[in-house]
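Exercise 7.
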Amino acid sequence: MLILGVESSCDETAFAVVENGTRALSNAIASQVELHARFGGVVPEIASRAHLECLVPLLHAALDEAGTTLDAIDAIAVTQGPGLAGCLLVGLEFAKALAFRHGKPLIPVHHIAGHVYSVHIGRERDAWGEGTGSPPPDPLAPYLALVVSGGHSSLIHVRGAGDYVTLGETLDDAVGEAYDKVAKLLGLGYPGGPLLDRLAVNGDPARFDLPRPVLNESHFHFSFSGLKTAVARLVEVRGRESFGEQDLADLAASFQAACIDVLLAKSARALKATGLKRFAIAGGVACNSGLRAAARQRLAGTTLALPEPEFCTDNAAMIAGAGYLAARTRAGRDYGINAEPSLSLR
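Solution. The predicted structure, written as tokens, is:
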């Protein structure tokens, strides 16, 4: 089964063709980083207009790379939400038009469900190193998924195909957003995650004593606003100009260590509470080298699944993959669906 995936929830326009839920025949992405870099974050109106400009050429690029045509596509999967309203509408309405014109089933996909599924894309074997990667049956579940990105920090119990229970979410800033804001405070640029991760490699994570918000609370929710504020106050008191190269590396390492401590401590607690032995990390922050290394070290005894780097950030292959599971269980020809910026995972 060939699924065309369409993703436009934020600042990446993406199309992908995925075969049988795991084999990405193409994964075309148009990034808007340069457009938003001078603002230090995504500007919704600019993002929406940029999506409009590249929809058609990017669709053709994805189909050409996959060596297929729209006539050969079995269904079209598209992000319905959550995300920026204008951005979601651009991709969704385009996908609806394609599906209607070519008589294809239209599969609405939750953006986070796509990230959760991303660990299964591009593998010869399944995410747990067992069996084969195609087709992905319900036995991929159950597992615990930590979804971490610029807009999300969630712990999700994946009970089966399309069956999710959200155990915890961020109470304020998402961890990726905190990375971006701290990088901006330090004058590093945008996006901040990769920049701080690279800087932290040469830093001392114990140099600065930074808080671990809600670390010892019994719930599974996250909070990163206080950590970001602590960095802001430190920089304000000392003065940004007083930070040398090593100081910046030490602060980056200390900030990253605080984030990782909270993320993995909460995850370990959730694994124990649920009795789950399989753990996946997904989303843009899943590319973070410090987080990946710490997870392997601290969660010994747990089978860990990490997405391939190209499937960590927003992409359409993950949407097509999640859409494949849905396409096996429902017809999905509802062309009247609308974008839902605050769509809940269910």
